[in-house]
Amino acid sequence: MSSIRFFLLTAFLLSFLFANGQKEVKSITYDSSIVDTRSFDKTKLEKLKADPELDYGRSPAAINLWERFKIWLNNWLSRLLTAVENANWFNILLTILAIIVVVYVILRLLKVDAFTMFYAGKKAPIAHGVIDEDIHAMDFEKLIREALSKKEFRLAIRLLFLQSLKLLADKNHILWQPGKTNHDYLEELTAQQLKTGFNELNFYFEYAWYGNFTINEGLYQKVDSIFKEWKTNV
């Protein structure tokens, strides 16, 4: 009995599958339309290529190096401007400030003067400051009196400065030599109580002798007062 049931069930399933298969086969449709295959007309294609009105640009091979550079530069600037527009400037400024602070701290720890690094090569002696006179052969009191009598106050201030050099050389504070500059002597002088006043005398000497200024008796009297006070410490 069980064999009959199995046979009937199998026959039912086969008939069901066969019926569905027939339906699927009947549902298939075929495209019977005619396909018209086309190809480019080589003559017309060559004519279009030769038409100058259809030339929208040159090939990369026809662009010279200068034009390629301009194209690259234009693209680079465009990318740069885009990056600038999209940048977070607050974070950039914070980063720059942080870098500056770190560099400053490092320089302070190393005891490096950042400004002297930029001007280290500019400390050459001033050529017009060369002292050629033999200061030991000069009678300064007489020469200054003559200059004042002629109202040559510029020369009188120069003579005061040369006299200060002689005083320093006589006391072995500096080594006087022809051809050295006033700045050489200033660097050579180590006594701080003398260096401050000598630096001031040097300032007025250069102001009066090399500057295009009107030097009157009042300025000379001021320099003479500085010289006399400074001389007491030599």
Produce the secondary structure layout.
Blueprint: H1 2-27, H2 42-50, H3 65-86, H4 89-109, H5 114-119, H6 140-149, H7 153-170, H8 182-188, H9 192-209, H10 217-231
Helix pairs in contact: 6-7, 7-9, 7-10, 9-10
Quick summary:
This protein has 234 residues and is an all-alpha fold.
For this entry, give a set of tags.
mainly alpha, Four Helix Bundle (Hemerythrin (Met), subunit A), 65% helix
Structure commentary:
This protein has helices spanning 2-27, 42-50, 65-86, 89-109, 114-119, 140-149, 153-170, 182-188, 192-209, 217-231. With 234 residues, it is mainly α. The chain has two domains: 43-122, no CATH class; 127-231, Four Helix Bundle (Hemerythrin (Met), subunit A).
Here the CATH topology of the largest domain equals Four Helix Bundle (Hemerythrin (Met), subunit A)
**Shape designation:** elongated
How many β-strand runs? Answer: 0
- In the CATH hierarchy, what is the architecture of the largest domain at level 2? Up-down Bundle
Flag low-confidence runs: 22-26, 119-129
Beta-sheet strand percentage?
Answer: under 5%
Compute the average pLDDT.
Answer: 76
What is the CA-atom radius of gyration, in angstroms? Answer: 50 Å
Structural class comes to mainly alpha
Taking the alpha carbons of the first and last residues, their distance comes to 145 Å
Output the CATH class name of the largest domain: Mainly Alpha
Question: What is the number of helical segments per DSSP (H or I, 4+ residues)?
Answer: 10
The major beta sheet can be summarized as:
none
Total number of distinct structural domains: 2
